[in-house]
Design a protein that fits this description.
Layout: E1 2-5, H1 25-41, E2 47-50, H2 54-63, E3 72-74, H3 83-91, E4 100-104, H4 108-116, H5 124-131, E5 138-142, E6 157-162
Parallel strand pairs: 1-4, 2-3, 2-4
Antiparallel strand pairs: 1-5, 5-6
Helix pairs in contact: 1-2, 3-4
């Protein structure tokens, strides 16, 4: 399971509705670096669920060269979703789905990751994730389940936590 917070968005125009805010220059740079990371790591989720907010769609669009044959589902419930809503959306996935990329927003994504991950206090990545899931942050979790509805507290292992700074940007 890949949880990706949209990249940095622009606040240049205070008249734009939050839903319609685009990525800024740093966000576009971070998205391009994420695409390279996805390619280098062979990240190719079977299913993609994405918030329809402009900044989330643009973040996902930057990954499209890597996932040329993948179609995304844009679900309004992902916009400003709580941890419980995100968990319910994952529970709707068919059992045959082996991996998913969820592109969304905080605080829901961070809360979902912290809820699902097995607590290992000494794990540096978990300490960092507990502090902040920055824009453009990618959390990779694994779980030994055969039904997405069985995702529950502590069911996942934190495989990695990548921040834009880790990829060479100062986001």
């Amino acid at each position: 399971m890949y949880l990706l917070r949209h990249a940095k968005s622009s606040w240049d125009d205070p008249g734009i509705d939050d839903f319609d805010r685009p990525l800024n220059k740093r966000g576009r740079k971070a998205s391009a670096l994420l695409a390279k990371y996805f390619e280098d790591q062979g990240v190719r989720p079977e299913t993609i669920l994405c918030s329809p907010a402009k900044r989330a769609r643009q973040t996902l669009s930057s990954l499209s060269p890597v996932m040329v044959d993948r179609e995304a589902t844009f679900d309004r419930r992902l916009y400003e979703a709580s941890r419980q809503t995100l968990q319910a959306l994952l529970a709707e996935l068919p059992a045959r789905c082996g991996s998913v990329l969820l592109v969304g927003h905080n605080p829901g994504l961070q809360r979902l990751a912290l809820y699902l991950v097995k607590p290992v206090p000494a794990l540096p990545a978990l300490r960092l994730l507990n502090d902040k899931l920055p824009t453009g942050g990618l959390v990779t979790l694994s779980a030994e389940i055969n039904d997405w509805s069985r995702l529950q507290m502590g069911a996942c292992t934190l495989e990695s936590f990548i921040r834009p700074n880790d990829l060479g940007t100062d986001e």
